[in-house]
Design goal:
Elements lengths: L17 E2 L2 E2 L21 H31 L3 H28 L2 H22 L7 H26 L5 H30 L1 H23 L15 H7 L5 H30 L2 H25 L5 H14 L10 H30 L3 H5 L1 H29 L3 H12 L1 H13 L5
Antiparallel strand pairs: 1-2
Helix pairs in contact: 1-4, 1-5, 1-6, 1-8, 2-4, 2-13, 3-4, 3-6, 4-13, 5-6, 5-9, 5-11, 8-9, 8-11, 8-13, 8-15, 9-11, 10-11, 10-15, 11-15, 13-14
Subcellular location: Cell membrane
Keywords: Membrane, Transmembrane, Transmembrane helix
Membrane topology: Multi-pass membrane protein
Length: about 425
Amino acid sequence: MHNDQSMQRMHPGKGKERQKGNYFEERDQQPAQPNNSAPKGRLDSQAILLIIVHTLFGSANALSGTFVGVYLWKAKNDFTLIGWFTLATHLTMAITFWLAGKWVKEHNKMNCLRIGVAISAVFYMLVLWLGANSFQYFVWLGIVQGISAGLFWVAFNVVYFEVTDPGNRDRFNGSVGLLGAGAGIIAPWISGLLIVNLGDIKGYRLIFSISLGIFLLGVVISFFLKKRKVQGTYEWMFPIRSLRKAETPWKRVSLALVFQGVREGVFGFMIALLVYISTSSEASLGNFVLITSAVSLVSFWAAGRFIKPKFRKVSMFIGAAMVVAIILPFFWKMGYSTLLLFGLGSALFFPMYSVPMVSAVFDLIGSTEESARQREEYIVLRELALNVGRVSGVLLFICVISWSKAPLVINVLLLIIGSSPLFSWYFMKKQLSVIKT
């Protein structure tokens, strides 16, 4: 739930209960969906705490993560190097998800989340320590970032599944997006001003140091989340076994996730980099993120409030179509004005695409008693599919950029990669029509 990657229940009573479309386990076991004393559709205290931890994690990454690609670019003007750094991150993230699935299934998932946050702090410590030589260790830095993201998101997504239900999942996703956009308004803008006013060395050192402190605060806040019971044994080959079944919606859903990942893998770093290249100013990049995040804040609030399950299919289609359409102005002119137009369009329409996508996938995980009990494995399957898409998108980017850096070639590449949300909608449309009541 990043960064784009960023996006990503029942009320157990005595004995065994069942609510249509959602399944419960015995009270003395780990519930597929935990106790939720809040009124229907509302978020309880544990869900709110999880949102706070996510916001701190996102704020620290917004403060510095936006500028990591720029930092590497300034050290060595090389699209390919940044592509390889991103590829190392996503490959490591996929492996970490698969390995850490056993941890969150059989051991303390909250420690997994905390260590993920702590390793994010280590990443920025390494960047500070290596300084201008960071680009020489881009593969190792990508690996560290991939480990931190993998540990955090596998634990976060499992806990997210446990503290929400189909009645409040869209609201949770909207709240996460809302606060993430709020962090995006302030953090990169402040970072850009600090870098410009203090200079590269002092400015980057300060924002990376602040990020480190925010990550540590996130670890402290996470201790207020309740330790969650564990149950069952982790099945290592579950993703392969699930996709081999003759009749399973996960074949279509996995393809949708792959195409979702294609866009995330490239646009996650490329747009910010293009803004910097067009303006040669971190302050302009900060202003870009501030403006687009302000629009995103409103649109995520609206998506969380108004997109109900019965509207998911049409909402996702409109969102997917529009995030493709806003790439077309690049063919007229690639500059700050068209990049800002793209950013505003993405901020306005991307929540219409992402909120239904995330909610529908997690509703599918909780749709049967068996799948709810194997939520960790399904979450690993989800993330593996996303990372297959991310890796595929970045590999395509590296191949094309290594062949030609002509503006027309880059624009065509962005259009091809940016069209992947339409394929996501195509493979998800049947699942989006399944409405739980």
